[in-house]
Amino acid sequence: MEEKNNNIISTYFDNLANLIENDNELAEVVLSDEAIDMAQEKHKTTMLINRLETKLKAKIRKEKYQKALSKLKRLKDGLKNKPAEYIDQYLNKPENLALRPLFNKLGKLSESDIQSMVDDAQLLDLFDKIDENFDLEDE
Amino acid sequence: MSENEKKYLLGEQLLIRLKQEDWDDLIPKLQAYAETKIKAKCLYFTQELKQVALDIANEAIEKLWTEERKWDINYYKTVYSFLLGAIDSLISSYFKEVSKNKKVSLYVTDVRNKTITDNDFEAADLKNNVDELFNDDVDAGLVFDLIVQGCKPSDISKELGIEINKVYNAIKRVNRKLLEAQKLIK
Questions:
Q1: pLDDT digits (tens, 9 = 90+) for A32-90
Q2: What is the per-residue pLDDT across A81-106, written as a single tens digit (0 to 9) for each?
Q3: Is the overall model pTM greater than 0.80, yes or no?
Q4: Could you give the residue ranges of the DSSP H alpha helices within chain B?
Q5: Any residues with CB less than 8 A from the CB of B92 and at least 6 apart, and which?
Q6: Which of A36, A109, B146, B182 qualifies as a cystine partner to A113, CB 3.0-4.6 A?
Q7: Nearest CA of chain B to the CA of A86: how many Å?
Q8: How far is residue B19's CA from residue B1's CA, in Å, rounded to a whole number?
Q9: Nearest to A60 among B15, B123, B164 (CB)
């Protein structure tokens, strides 16, 4: 009999858990506890989320930087095999005119240049566009 | 793309999506869900287990933000549903681990997927012990019964003709009585 009672109590709590999603008040009722300061617990979790957001942003930034570096290397290698006229023709197209100043910089980019360009995603956009047009992906 | 195909939300897309969430609203719900699911699995709920529930809710959040547990948005349509899945999985792992050391008493059977049928519910011997708990509190007994049957607080309020706040207060009393009863059994 004890086992059956356990089952019914377990069902009660399972159902209660499933009702919480659309019921803020029910969440508060469940959490009400004199021994633990729930406002403090919520604050701790909020602080945790802030730290996790910072970590995720840093990870994204690092991944972009690494992607930019590897694309730059592939691009430099790939351009060696392309005739200058072909590149000129591409950059003279009206829709690509905006790329030319960035393209001209590629040969003399320093690490700090890359970092600053990565920050606003300009460089990755440029590399993506060049990859697309010059088939440099599979060097 | 088929509905069953996995589509993970990662990197910048994940960041954008997570920043749109109302975490002030989500956090207490996740904590409450973790606590209640532990109560559903564990015969003797203690302050130590309350802290475990809070830790598990935080760990689920951490696994999402760090991409340690990847979010397949075709399977879990919302952050909340993804985090509930993560919490369920962490609770399950926790109890597997502690039951090896017999630190906590679990319910004898896993009833997560069991539905109480009318026959089950009406069986007198099933209800006797639980009913005794609510001898002195009719509202709490009725609220307990209705939640076991899957009713939500607003439905219970209509069914019993009492204000919703009284339903919430009754739920508090039910939870307190069950906790006290568990201590006595122990």
A1: 876 778 889 999 999 999 999 999 998 888 888 777 777 766 766 666 677 778 777 87
A2: 777 787 778 778 887 777 677 677 76
A3: no
A4: 11-19, 23-41, 47-65, 79-101, 118-122, 124-133, 138-148, 153-160, 164-185
A5: none
A6: A109
A7: 34
A8: 26
A9: B15
Give the bridge partners for B9, in sequence order.
Answer: B71
| Sequence-distant (≥ 6) Cβ neighbours of residue B125 within 8 angstroms | A1, A4
> Which of B111, B168, B174 is facing A11, going by the closest CB pair?
B111
- Chain centroid offset of residue A55 CA: 11
User: With b meaning 16 or more CB within 10 Å and e meaning fewer, what string describes A106-118?
Assistant: beeeeeeebeebb
Is the Cβ pair A49, B23 closer than 8 Å?
A: yes
Query: DSSP character for B5?
Result: S
What ipTM does the predicted assembly reach? 0.84
Instruction: Give the residue carrying structure tokens 């017999």.
Output: B102
